[in-house]
Each structure stands twice: as C-alpha cells, then as structure tokens.
Amino acid sequence: MKYRKFGRLQWDISEIGYGMWGMGGWTESDDIQSATSLDLAVENGVNFFDTAWGYGEGHSEQLLGQLVRRHPSTKLYTASKIPPKNFRWPAKPEYRFEDSYPYAHIIEYTDKTLKNLGLEQIDLMQFHTWDDGWTQSDEWKRAVEDLKKAGKIAAMGISANRWEPENCIAAIHTDLIDAIQVIYNIFDQAPEDVLFPLCDEKNIAIIARVPFDEGTLTGNITKDTTFPEGDWRGTYFVPENLMASAEKADLLRPVVPEGMTMAEMALRFILMNETVSTIIPGMRKQKNVLANTATSDGKGLSHDLHTELRNHRWDRQPTAWSQ
Hints:
The chain is α/β, with parallel strands linked by helices. The protein is 34% helix and 13% strand. The protein is built from 11 helices and 10 strands. The chain has helices at residues 28-43, 59-70, 103-117, 138-149, 169-172, 195-202, 233-236, 239-252, 262-271, 286-293, 303-310, and strands at 3-5, 12-14, 18-19, 48-50, 77-82, 122-127, 153-159, 179-183, 205-209, 278-279. Strands 3-4-5-6-7-8-9-10 form an 8-stranded parallel beta sheet, with helices on one face. It has a two-stranded antiparallel sheet with strand order 1-2. The protein is globular, with a radius of gyration of 19 Å. The two termini are 32 Å apart.
C-alpha cells in the first residue's frame, strides 16, 4: 500500500481508503462479513475509513468504532458526516441554513457520532451536504471552531453534492475546511477544472468518492441490468440514466488492457492524479478488498491509456434522480 499526505494535516493516508456506506443497513450476519472485510483491509494497509451517521442511523459508525478497538496498535483514521437537519440529500439552494446545519444540530450529531464510535475524538467530521449559499453564516464557523477547541474533531470537511464540484469553493476560502470529498472518476473529471487547483493552492485534502460511478465503471452495468426491490441503485439507474451509463461503459470496454478489469483501470486512473489524497470505494466482500488494495502499487496506467481515458469525460448536471 502506498500512502499520501492528507493536505495540510500531513497525515499519512492510504491511497485506497474504505467507503462504509454499504454497511449501514445490514443484518447481524452481514455485520460479521463486514468485520471480516474491514479487518482484511487493515491487514492490507488501509488506514482511512469513511462513514456517516446517515448510513443506518449510526450503525456504520458503530462498526467503525469496533474496528478501531480491534486494532489498538494501528492508527486508523476515522471520518464521518453530519446529516442535514432536514434529512434531505443533496442540498439545494432553496434550503435554508437554519434547516440544514444550525449550531446546535452540528454539535448534537458530532456527539452522536462520537458515542457511536466510542471515541473522544474523530479525525475528520464532514458536512454530508453543502450549498455555498450558507458560507456567510457564522453559526457553522463557530461550531467548527468550538468542536476543534474542545478536541472532539481534529479536522472538518465537506462532502460536495453530486456533479457540483465547485459548490464548496466559497467555504474553502474561509480556511475552516481541511478536506473535500468529491465524486471523481473516469467520467466525472470536472473537479480538475477549478476545485483541484484551488485545493492544491491551499493544501486541502481530496477524498475521491464513487470511483466506479455507482457500478458503471466496474463493467457490470448493462442496458438489461435490474436491481432488487429496495436497492438504492434502482432509484439512481432510472431508464434514462441506465441506458446512457451502459452506453458509456460499452465505449470503455475496448480500451481495458488485457489482464486488467475495468474496475482496476478506474482506480488506477484516479491514482494518476496526485491531488487526490485517497479513494474510498465500497468494499463489501473480501475479494473486492484484495482487488482494490492491489491497485496501490505505484504503477498507474500507461501514458497512452491515461490520455485515452481523458477523452471519456462525461459532464452531467444534477437531476431529480441524481441524489
């Protein structure tokens, strides 16, 4: 496993982190599988784990706390997210700050997260949604300062809305934000335009989420794909998105090198960008942990393939189904 500095915090963070969304609503038997996969990730050098109160109303946070206690001699970096008070994802310009992240709400849910984790301090707390129209509010700034002063959080970040990588620029300029979590992958290259240069300038850490475009970039999504009842992906891959996504994936299939999966190619593409501090794929099964962590070997992609993949950029705008 290779490690990178986490922005101005200078933490040594594994290039491949662990996204824990998929573990939020699992049953007890699945929790055992989760624990096995999480432990395997630690054994393979992963030291950054990202969760949220919204992942099972704290259940995923509890799994992370248990992981930390199982590995007392290894520094594992913990990251979670505060849900908006109105519990509506993503943020929209018409949502008032008072209905999203008032001071008391930020403090309350940070305390809930710490209780779920069983820790006195979390390394990185994040706003789970954000709209830059809230930037001028003093309440969230005071909350962040108070939480840091109290030692409850070491750093503060923002999880940017899907396909809105520049809807956090004003917040970055307050110098209170230490990290930005953003969708960045072969299709979603827009963060490179404005966000990444600013984060380089200010030494802000970048967490790349959704590296597989919710599954499209694993190569497993086709026009005939269906999802089980209740599976979130069924509400995301509505017909117009499923058809377009499958077509984009089909265009990529011919360029996947022999002996490499599309998923591996997708991770290696992101790792080629030195602005990225860590990638947080979801890894429910042990085979996924092994495959994903193996990409952190410093090899990247060939120049010609990397150049070709840049031509597959797909700029999209938020929709009712993009969530």
